[in-house]
C-alpha cells in the first residue's frame, strides 16, 4: 500500500518569522496530517509597499529552521500588489506546483466555511445579492458599507450565521480575513483542488504594536528594531529568528524605507508625469500629486504622508511609489509563470523532482539557469525580481558595507537534515 | 553719430571662477574694445562628465561680480558633450543672440590665425589634405597621428608655419587648442559674423594640479576643496570667488561625483543593457562593460576606472555614465534652441531687450515662462536642464540640508549697478 505524503502550503511574508508563524506552521501540519510544508514567501519587498526589514535569504533560513521544507519566492510585482493579486499569485504557485494538497492561512475569524461562503458570493455575485447591493448604493452608502449590507442580507437569507452589520463589517475589515477571502476566491476561480484550512490568529493583532503581548506581531518586532533595541525583543521569538536577528544586526539589516529616500526622489525627478502612470498602482491622480508635491526630500515616509488625500489611501500611495522605485509596470496578467526557489531542506528534493518531472511550472533553483527555463515574458518578470534584489543588496552595502553575492550566482539556502 | 557698443562673448565653465578667468575677461574687453561681456556657461554638470564643484547660481554670481554682464546657461546635453558639440552649441547661442560681435577664448598656442587655418582645413577637407590623410592611414598610423601628419603636410605646402610633427601634435592635443579649433569650425559652419580672438593661457596649465603656481588652475582649486582645506586656497582668487567659497562651504558645496554613487548604481541596475545605448555617449561596447562590471558600488570614480579599456577612454566613460544618470538621450540635433538666462547686471537689460525685439532665439528669464516660449522639442531639452538642476539641488539638500528653491521658481541672479 502506497501512502501518499501530504503537503501543506503557506503564503507568508515572515517579516520577520515569529512565534505566531511558528504556531501556524505547526498547526498546519497537525490539522492536515501533512508531512511537508511549502511556503510561498515575499522577497525583499512586502505587501504594504515597503522593503522587508531583513533580506529574503535570512527570512528563508528562519522558515526552514522552524519546519518549512521548501521556500519559493513570490515575485515582487505580486508580493507588493493588492490583497487580491497577492493572494491569487500565491495560490497559483501552490496550485501549479502540483504536489500541494492543502493551503493553510491565519484569519481573525477562524471560520473557513464563512470565508468560503463570502468568497463564493463575491465570485458568483448572485442576482439577489446584486440587487441588494444596488439598492444600498442608491441610499448613498459607500461601496464597502453597501457591500457588507448586501452580503449580510444574502447570508441571512440563506442560512443564519449569527452576524450583524457591525460584526460582519469588522470581519470584512480585518486584514487576514480579507486575504483569506481572496485565497478562497483564487481557489474558486482556478477550480483548484487545494483544500483550505484557516487558523484563528492567536495573541497580538496584526497592527498591534505592543511588544509585551504574548506572540508579539511582526510590526511590534520591527518597531523594536527601528529603535536599535535588540534587548527588548520578545524572549519567546523562535530560536533561529533570534540568532539571525542578533548575528546580522547592523551587518545586513535593518533596512527601512527611509533608506531609499534619495533614490525615490531621484527616480521621481527623472520621470515625466505622463510616464508615471505606466507604473503599477499609479493613478493619474497620484501622478499629479507626486509632481506637485515633489520638492526636496525630507524622508520617504514624510513624502508618502504628504500625498495623502481622502481618496488616496496610504497603502495605495506606498505601493505606487514602490512600483516607481522598482520600475514595476502596470500589467494585466496576474498568472504566475515560474517558481523561484529560495531554499529547501535536503529531504524536500523529492518534491522538487516530482514537480520537475510533471513540468507544471518552471522551477528555478539556480538563477543563472532562468534564461533558458523561461520564455521572454517570464524572464522579464524574473528580471524585475533580480533588479529589486540588487537594489536591496546595494542598500545593505551602502548602509553596512556588507557585500552580498550577485543574484545570478546566489544559490538557494539549503538546510541539511 | 551713433556709436554701437561692442559686445564680446565667452564660453566657460568657471568651475570655479579664478584668476585666469578674470584675466581672460579683462583682456577680452581690452583687446576688442567691447563694453559688454556675455558668458555662455555650463550649468551644474561640466564637460568632463562630472558635477560642478559649486552650483551654477554661485558661479554666475562670481562671473557677474568680476565683469560679466550676462550669463546664459549652456544646456546640459551640450555642456557635457564632446568638444565639438560643446563648442558648436556655445557659438550657436552667442551667434543667435544677435548682439554679440566677438568671441574670445583661451588657448595654449595663442595663435588665432593658426587655429582658424586648421579649422578651415578640417571643415573643408581639401583634396590634397584628404589624399595625404589616406596615405598616412594606410601606413598603419592611428587616426590622430595620421591627421596631424596630413595637416602638417598641408600647412607646409601653403605657408611655412614653423611647426613640426611633434609641436603640431602637442598643439592638437592641448585641451584649449582643441576647443579653440572647434569654436573656429563652428563659426565657419554657421557662416557666423562673430569675430574670434584668442588669449594665450597664462600661469598653470589646464591639468596642472599644483596649487602654489601663479594663476592656479580650477583643477588645483577643486583639489583643495576635496581636502576640505580652505586655508590652502590661492590668496589671489578673485574676491567674490573667495567670499562665496568661504560662505557656502559645507552649506551648498562641495559636490563631488562620488556623492552620486548610489544613484548611479540604482539607475544602472534598473536599465536593461539594450536600453543603455539609447543614452548619449553610450556605445554598445560601453553598455556591455557596464553590465558586466556592475557589482556593488565602491565609488562612482572607481566604477569609471573599472570600465576603462584601451579603446574606451575615461572621458567617454565619464560622459556616458553621466548621461545615463541624467537620462540624456542620444540626439542628432546640435542646434541650440533657446537661451536660458542665469543672471545679469541691471545695465545689461538693454541687450536683452534688443534680443527679445529681434526675436533671434527664445530668451528665458523666468523659467516658469519656458513652456509658453518654447515648442515641444525645445521644452523637452529645457526639462533636461530642470531635471539635472533638481538632481544637483537634491544632492545639496542630502549632503548639507540646505534647501534650494524649485528651478521653476528660482529667478536669475541680478547684480545691481
From TrEMBL, chains A, B:
Coiled coil: none annotated. Keywords: ATP-binding, Cytoplasm, Ligase, Nucleotide-binding, RNA-binding, tRNA processing, tRNA-binding. This is tRNA(Met) cytidine acetate ligase. SUPFAM superfamilies: Nucleotidylyl transferase. It is found in: Cytoplasm. It comes from Lachnoclostridium phytofermentans (strain ATCC 700394 / DSM 18823 / ISDg) (Clostridium phytofermentans). PANTHER family: TRNA(MET) CYTIDINE ACETATE LIGASE (PTHR37825). The keyword Glycosyltransferase does not apply. It catalyses: cytidine(34) in elongator tRNA(Met) + acetate + ATP = N(4)-acetylcytidine(34) in elongator tRNA(Met) + AMP + diphosphate. ATP binds at residues 11-24, 106, 176, 201. GO terms for cellular component: cytoplasm.
